[in-house]
Automatic annotation (TrEMBL):
Its cofactor is FAD. Its EC number is 2.1.1.148. Binds 4 FAD per tetramer. Each FAD binding site is formed by three monomers. GO terms for molecular function: flavin adenine dinucleotide binding; NADPH binding; thymidylate synthase (FAD) activity; thymidylate synthase activity. It holds the Pfam family Thy1. It catalyses: dUMP + (6R)-5,10-methylene-5,6,7,8-tetrahydrofolate + NADPH + H(+) = dTMP + (6S)-5,6,7,8-tetrahydrofolate + NADP(+). Belongs to the thymidylate synthase ThyX family. FAD binds at residues 70, 93-95, 102, 190-192, 196. This is Flavin-dependent thymidylate synthase. Keywords: FAD, Flavoprotein, Methyltransferase, NADP, Nucleotide biosynthesis, Transferase. Catalyzes the reductive methylation of 2'-deoxyuridine-5'-monophosphate (dUMP) to 2'-deoxythymidine-5'-monophosphate (dTMP) while utilizing 5,10-methylenetetrahydrofolate (mTHF) as the methyl donor, and NADPH and FADH(2) as the reductant.
């Protein structure tokens, strides 16, 4: 019997979804106008800028169309994201305009929450790198994925618990945990950096430049976009109208 066998073990939890919550924001369409008009009209009131919707829409469309990007940086959104670690490894490639703080496996014991694809997750990949197409898996393929992932997760987490129970440091023991483990973080960005993120991490029929994101990070991106569209509807509409290309 190992040391880990002597202590009660927390049972793994399996998820096929992600969590995205807008926890703080200072973001509205008037922020774009405020920043843009200082160059020609000096300082202006945010409330006054919001009153003329027609002119506001026109200016925002002009800025988006001609790719005057800096006015879209004068705002802020902070999201809480809970997703598999492999999603965060892709997320952290977005460095300009993003700030991150992720939970630490050095300072806390990581909980056994793991990703298993849902039945609607396409499993079969065909095509060339960068232009893959994905197709539905068979019931047998889904069964293989489910069984293999759960078995690997349980074995890995048991090994992690065994090392912790033996007094091994958390930063060492965590090395056995897989990238399907859920982590959590705060991600703060502005509208311009978010548009860059969305242009790469969503697949959309209105996109002027095709993108082929992994579905799990696209799930995160879709939820972030929905929250942003509520905060800055004119800016979001202009982004979509002009091919989902960040200015």
């Amino acid at each position: 019997m190992t040391v880990a066998d002597e202590a009660p073990q927390e049972q793994p939890t399996y998820r096929s979804d992600v969590t995205v919550e807008l926890v703080r924001h200072a973001a509205r369409d008037a922020d774009v106008l405020f920043a843009a008009r200082v160059s020609t009209a000096g300082e202006a009131s945010l409330d006054e800028l919001e009153k003329d919707a027609t002119r506001s829409k026109g200016l925002i469309n002009y800025l988006m169309r001609d790719r005057h990007g800096t006015p879209f940086e004068h705002n802020s959104m902070t999201f809480f994201v809970s997703a598999p670690i492999f999603v965060f490894r892709e997320f952290h490639r977005h460095r300009v305009g993003f700030s991150y703080n992720e939970e630490s496996g050095r300072y806390r014991e990581l909980l056994p929450v793991f990703y298993v694809p849902g039945e609607d997750r396409k499993l079969v990949q065909r095509g060339k790198p960068g232009r893959y197409e994905f197709f539905d898996g068979t019931p047998e393929q889904h069964a293989v994925v489910d069984t293999a992932m759960r078995g690997a997760y349980e074995q890995a987490y048991a090994a992690y618990q065994e090392m912790l129970a033996a007094g091994v440091a958390r930063e060492v023991a965590r090395a056995v945990l897989p990238v399907g483990l859920f982590s959590s973080m705060y991600a703060t960005c502005n509208a311009r950096s978010l548009m860059h993120f969305l242009s790469l991490r969503t697949k959309h029929e209105a996109a002027a430049v095709p993108s082929f994101p992994q579905r799990e990070i696209e799930m995160v991106a879709e939820r972030m976009e929905a929250a942003w569209a509520q905060l800055m509807p004119l800016t979001h509409a202009a982004f979509v109208e002009h091919g989902r290309v960040a200015p």
